[in-house]
Amino acid sequence: MDFTDKVVLITGASSGLGASIAIHLSKLSAKLVLVGRKEINLKKIAQYCEKPKGIKPHTIVADVSDEGNLERILNETIEEFGKLDVLVNNAGVLAMGGIKKTDMESFDRVMSINTRAVFQLTMLATPHLIASKGCIINMSSIVSTRPNTIMLAYNMSKAAIDQFTKCVALELAPDGVRVNSVNPGFVKTNLIKDSGLTEDQVDMVSKNMAQSNPLKKIVEADEVAALVAFLASDQAKSITGCCYPIDSGKLLV
After folding, report:
1. pLDDT by residue (tens digit) across 46-64?
2. How many folded domains does the chain comprise?
3. Per-residue model confidence as pLDDT tens digits over 204-241
4. What pTM was estimated for this model as a whole?
5. Neighbours of 58 (CB within 10 A)
6. Is residue 2 part of a domain?
7. Would you call 48 a catalytic residue per the annotation?
8. Which of 9, 200, 245, 248 would bridge with 33, disulfide CB 3.0–4.6 Å?
9. Cβ 206 vs Cβ 188: under 8 Å
10. Is residue 114 within 8 Å of residue 138, measured between CB atoms?
11. Of the residues 36, 49, 141, 154, which is catalytic?
């Protein structure tokens, strides 16, 4: 795969899956626009991305829950590179709690970042993606279709992303724009750590998840990054409107 001269915008790129996706695509010669809330982390990831091919990413410090920031992100991308080929909607937050133990503040934050920001950023990016015959990758989760009782708002947000993916794929297909989602199972990233679990609890969850998966392993971030790269590449030029699980077989049990 070769992303030479392809401009790729990745939200939530300062850590976790976003950082892994950025590093993977940097090895494929992509021109990267990295968006994240943590400036220090974002700069470190940008340095990693510059090493493989010497292509310096453009970094944007921004919280995607701020509506004004989304316009700024798109404007800076076009000003820097003149076009947009791939949009990776990766930024997301996780809130624990079911209907018995939650609050509207948590719900609103999850939906604002995981769903509303994706909707608006995609809307703003659409004219540029039509111009480049580009594509969109939305980061979803297997919990979009696999219910549980501990992450209600998060599950809802990802179910919305899957439907968003299919609807936008159908609408933009005549314009030559492809839209797909990647639906990972458990991946040990900062998203899990930031949910309020201790390091020991995260390790315990990781071990339990690995044992419960048919493949007896958890999903690695670089595996997810490789799937994103494939779906964003010309090798997937006939794939649109699909939600791709990558879960070590979790949906089978």
Report:
1. 999 999 999 999 999 999 9
2. 1
3. 888 999 999 999 999 999 999 999 999 999 999 999 99
4. 0.95
5. 17
6. no
7. no
8. 9
9. yes
10. no
11. 154
